[in-house]
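Renewal narrative, Specific Aim 1. Our central claim is that a sequence can be written position by position from structural information alone. The example that follows is taken directly from our test logs and has not been curated for this report. It begins with the structure tokens describing the chain, in the order in which they were read.
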């Protein structure tokens, strides 16, 4: 496997986490326009991406392969929970 192929595999592995993180942040801006989040959009995106990558790596470790539906379910629930906590933490402050 060449370096380019390895890079493409890594980017394709991380793509679902990035897309879900971006969708969650954008939807929270639309749905919770009146509430002020704890962090700016880039930090929210970074936190959700990190949580998503953690879910994908955990799924790869548990199942031994990527692309399982259970892994994607954990990805969506994890990113949603992280975004909710980011919004909720500011309201409690």
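The sequence written for that structure reads:
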């Amino acid at each position: 496997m060449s370096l380019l192929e390895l890079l493409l595999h890594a980017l394709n592995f991380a793509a679902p986490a990035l897309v879900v993180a971006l969708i969650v942040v954008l939807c929270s801006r639309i749905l919770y326009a009146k509430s002020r989040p704890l962090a700016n959009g880039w930090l929210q995106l970074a936190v959700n991406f990190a949580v998503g990558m953690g879910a994908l790596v955990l799924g790869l470790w548990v199942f031994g392969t990527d692309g399982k539906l259970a892994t994607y379910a954990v990805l969506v629930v994890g990113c949603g929970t992280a975004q909710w906590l980011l919004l909720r933490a500011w309201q409690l402050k």
